[in-house]
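Subgroup meeting minutes
Present: P.N., E.W., G.H.
Scribe: E.W.

1. P.N. recapped why we're keeping a running log of single-chain structure predictions: easier to compare across weeks, and new members can see raw inputs and outputs side by side.
2. G.H. added today's entry (58 aa).
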Amino acid sequence: MHRMNTMDFLKGVGAGMAAGAAIGMLVSPRQKKCKTGLSRALHSAGEIIDGLSCAMGL
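Output recorded in log:
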């Protein structure tokens, strides 16, 4: 059984967030305020990653 280390975990989280953001942008209706939604999503993603790294002691 493969043991996951911190870098593997962070790579998986990043890949999952990128895939989720891409699917969300494809599925969501077209809006003129696309930049605002994207900036909010990136800001939230940054906060989540900061929280995870703090919790893991990085």
